[in-house]
Design brief:
Layout lengths: L5 E5 L5 H8 L4 H8 L9 H12 L5 E7 L5 E11 L4 E9 L9 H16 L4 E7 L3 H9 L3 E12 L2 E11 L4
Parallel strand pairs: 4-5
Antiparallel strand pairs: 1-2, 2-3, 3-4, 5-7, 6-7
Protein name: IS4 family transposase ISBce8
InterPro entries: Acyl_CoA_acyltransferase (IPR016181), GNAT_dom (IPR000182)
GO molecular function, one term: acyltransferase activity, transferring groups other than amino-acyl groups
């Protein structure tokens, strides 16, 4: 899948170190915001390798690397998981634009449009969902820009650094895309 700015390809084991590099100077809160409780701080290559062995290669989890079309440089990741084949629903998780200089350049919007094409056209989903912490305003704006709507707010869903975080569940239906 590709468009003018980025293209998506399935993430491979040799790409995992790049994710570690993006997270070297990040806090435990940053890791929680991006990955939820899936990984422990600090993020290690072993954790990512175990994730691939236990989930990506066994379950229906599709992790894509986001590549700049012009250079093939890997600049982020995005995944589809929690696939409900009966109801034709998938969930976007662990969406990360690695370097700050790649944020705010419509790359996030382009990546979302590409993953939605995969979900709605290739996987034939009727609905795609995601969760986002309520203070992540830039992500919420990006999601709304491509058509996601807020469905619900779960208050105090996650305790992080002595504070409780709220989470919006958002979704988009195939006809809305």
């Amino acid at each position: 899948m590709s468009n003018q700015i980025i293209k998506l390809k399935l993430l491979e084991k040799q790409d995992l170190q790049k994710i570690i590099d993006w997270n070297v100077d990040k806090s435990a809160d940053d890791l929680m915001q991006w990955a939820g409780p899936k990984f422990n701080y600090p993020l290690t290559l072993k954790q990512l390798e175990n994730y691939f062995l236990s989930e990506v290669f066994i379950e229906k989890v599709f992790v894509y690397k986001i590549l700049l079309t012009s250079t093939d440089e890997m600049i982020g990741t995005i995944e589809i998981r929690e696939i409900d084949e009966t109801n034709k629903i998938g969930k976007i998780c662990r969406f990360l634009i690695g370097e700050k200089n790649n944020r705010g350049n419509h790359i996030g919007t382009a990546a979302l449009n590409e993953i939605l094409k995969i979900g709605f056209k290739d996987m034939n989903f009727k609905k795609i969902t995601l969760g986002v912490f309520d203070f992540n305003y830039s992500a919420i704006r990006c999601y709304e820009k491509v058509g996601f709507v807020k469905e619900s707010l779960s208050k105090n869903i996650r305790k992080v650094s002595n504070a409780y975080w709220n989470l919006y569940e958002m979704s988009i239906l195939k006809p809305e895309f």
